Amino acid sequence: MKNENLYKLPFANVYPYYIAKAEKKGRTKEELDTIICWLTGYDEKGLQQQLDSKASFENFYTEAPQLNPNISKITGLVCGIRVEEIEDPLMQKIRYLDKLVDELAKGKAMEKILKK
User: Fold this and answer.
1) What are the DSSP E strand ranges found in 1-108?
2) Which of 12, 18, 85, 112 could pair covalently with 51 via S-S, beta carbons 3.0-4.6 A apart?
3) Which domains does the chain have, with CATH numbers?
4) Using one digit for the tens of pLDDT, what is the confidence trace for 13-47?
């Protein structure tokens, strides 16, 4: 998928896959939402509004209240690419969330996922 197509894809279309990935490994939707809110600064109401409005990935991140100041502590590989080395800022934000969801699904403690 080209980046432009991904950027226009509604975040709400991918969200159920994030939930399924977490729940398949015994984690919860609430834990996933905590991670998303930690990363983007949305509260539960704001996140739900983004889902209900079918905001694109681009708008989801553009309208995010405030990216977490510890975002640079998210490191590692997603799809064989180091997230900290991705040059496209929007793609990097998308992959940061992918990395956090991967860590959740691998059973990592929430404190470590949230870089506390």
Assistant:
1) 77-78, 81-82
2) 12
3) 3-113 (1.10.8.290)
4) 999 999 999 999 999 999 999 999 999 999 999 99
